[in-house]
Amino acid sequence: MALQLTHIDNRSDALEYGDLYNWNTRFNIVGFEYLKGDWTLAAESGWGPTVIIVGTRTFVSDLRANYLLVSRQLVHGRASVRVDEFDDGTRRDQAITVAWFWIPSEGMSVGAELVTTGDENRLILQCRYGFSM
Predict the structure, then answer these.
(1) pLDDT score of 3
(2) Tens digit of each residue's pLDDT (9 = 90 or more) over 15-47
(3) CATH assignment of the domain containing 22
């Protein structure tokens, strides 16, 4: 089992530079991972403010992001489910991801990932083959 605590402070000045804003972000993250046989359980939760200054106005967003992942190693692959949540103080969203990957032989993998969030769904199919020269 692993437990991790992280504090991120980019020490930015929050000012505009050309077309970009230098977001001042201070973010705390707590996470864990637990492995038991073929199963993996992992989660993280992060929170903290981010600030930009536009002209004479200061804008602050209190960010919060969380996920919970359950995954199982299969004989020739892996299946996973992940639930995500995001909140920036004005908008809140959730997503669910279901993924399955099959590895029939060394260097080859086939996978599918379905992501749903609100009224948007996305399906990603992949086939990979790696070789060495």
Answers:
(1) 97
(2) 999 999 999 999 999 999 999 999 999 999 999
(3) 2.40.160.10
Work out the pLDDT band at 54, boundaries 50, 70, 90.
very high
Q: Is 28 left (phi over 0), alpha (psi -120 to 50) or beta?
A: beta
Q: How many domains would you assign to the chain?
A: 1
Domain encompassing residue 31: 2-129
pLDDT for the residue numbered 131: 81
Show the beta-strand stretches assigned E in 19-119: 20-21, 24-36, 39-54, 57-74, 77-87, 92-105, 108-117
Using only the alpha carbons of the chain, give its radius of gyration: 19
Query: Nearest 5°: CA angle at 32, between 29 and 33?
Result: 145
Burial of 39 (0-12, 13-18, 19+ CB in 10 A): exposed
